[in-house]
């Protein structure tokens, strides 16, 4: 196996850093999947066990000037490794004004992702900062556990209001309840609500955009045609998981789609020119 990449453009370094910061806000440990064309940050399906799941996909050509990789074999030209996201974030903190950055897979006492950052210096020479990030290489027999998650047929799909607005509302609702109910219909209405024995607080959004479902990158299926367009589909979720999703966004997506499986799960799809990110939150039992 071999992996080596290099980037000279400081804007690309900052962009990649923002992506990794977003991943770190969403989860502690993830799987990094490398292919000749793309990089993936994956948290395998945990929804059935009450946990969140994530699938983030990056086109390597949009981030790196040089990119070389050879997988486990010519037939399976991919590499899977488990990594702690915070370790990458710490390494990239050194790169805010870097002249270049190199990332490669190395063999030290354990397999590592080695990040080499070339920094400018007062004199003509440059400084080189090196970070060795331990990783666990995942064997081929386990790869099937890290495939793109499948989404059950959802009942409602809607484009969300600005995430900053939702975050401000959810922060206030967090003081009232541990759980938040998110509801929407195919008429462009969405409601965020918390309920306690003493009070019910709700915020309603109207005339929201509906996804067109013409682009395979946006959705593989339209909402269920059996679900009445005016009827609200709802899911009650842990408000901390919802806030974790809202607080982690540093990639400035141009659209965020919310798919609701009634009383079962919420699927968020962030769309950006260079990145797509899917995030699943299961419904909490009442």
UniProtKB/TrEMBL annotation:
InterPro entries: DNA_clamp_sf, HUS1, HUS1/Mec3
Domain of life, source organism: Eukaryota
Statement: the UniProt record of this protein carries the keyword Nucleus: yes
Keyword Methyltransferase assigned: no
Residue runs in coiled coils: none
Subcellular location: Nucleus
Pfam families per record: Hus1 (PF04005)
Swiss-Prot/TrEMBL keywords: Nucleus
Family: Belongs to the HUS1 family.
PANTHER family, per the entry: CHECKPOINT PROTEIN (PTHR12900:SF0), MITOTIC AND DNA DAMAGE CHECKPOINT PROTEIN HUS1 (PTHR12900)
The name this protein goes by in its record: Checkpoint protein
Source organism of this protein record: Clavelina lepadiformis (Light-bulb sea squirt)
Lineage: Eukaryota, Metazoa, Chordata, Tunicata, Ascidiacea
């Amino acid at each position: 196996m071999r992996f080596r990449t290099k980037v000279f453009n400081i804007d690309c370094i900052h962009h990649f850093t923002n992506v990794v910061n977003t991943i770190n806000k969403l989860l502690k440990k993830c799987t990094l999947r490398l292919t000749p064309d793309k990089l993936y940050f994956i948290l395998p399906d945990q929804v059935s066990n009450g946990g969140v799941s994530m699938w983030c996909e990056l086109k390597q050509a949009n981030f790196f000037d040089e990119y070389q990789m050879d997988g486990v074999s010519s037939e399976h030209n991919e590499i899977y490794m488990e990594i702690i996201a915070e370790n990458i974030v710490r390494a990239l903190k050194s790169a805010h004004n870097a002249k270049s950055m190199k990332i490669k897979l190395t063999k030290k006492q354990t397999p590592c992702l080695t990040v080499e950052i070339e920094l400018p210096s007062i004199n003509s020479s440059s400084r080189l900062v090196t970070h060795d990030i331990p990783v666990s290489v995942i064997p081929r027999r386990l790869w099937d556990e890290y495939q793109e998650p499948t989404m059950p047929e959802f009942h409602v799909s809607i484009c969300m209001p600005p995430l900053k607005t939702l975050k401000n509302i959810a922060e206030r609702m967090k003081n009232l309840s541990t759980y938040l109910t998110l509801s929407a219909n195919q008429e462009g209405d969405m409601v965020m609500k918390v309920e306690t024995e003493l009070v019910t607080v709700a915020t309603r959004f109207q005339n929201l955009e509906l996804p067109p479902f013409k682009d395979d990158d946006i959705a593989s299926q339209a909402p269920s045609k059996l679900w009445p367009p005016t009827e609200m589909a709802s899911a009650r979720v842990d408000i901390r998981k919802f806030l974790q999703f809202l607080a982690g966004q540093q990639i400035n997506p141009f659209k965020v789609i919310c798919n609701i499986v009634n009383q079962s799960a919420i699927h968020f799809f962030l769309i950006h020119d260079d990145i797509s990110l899917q995030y699943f939150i299961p419904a909490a039992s009442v």
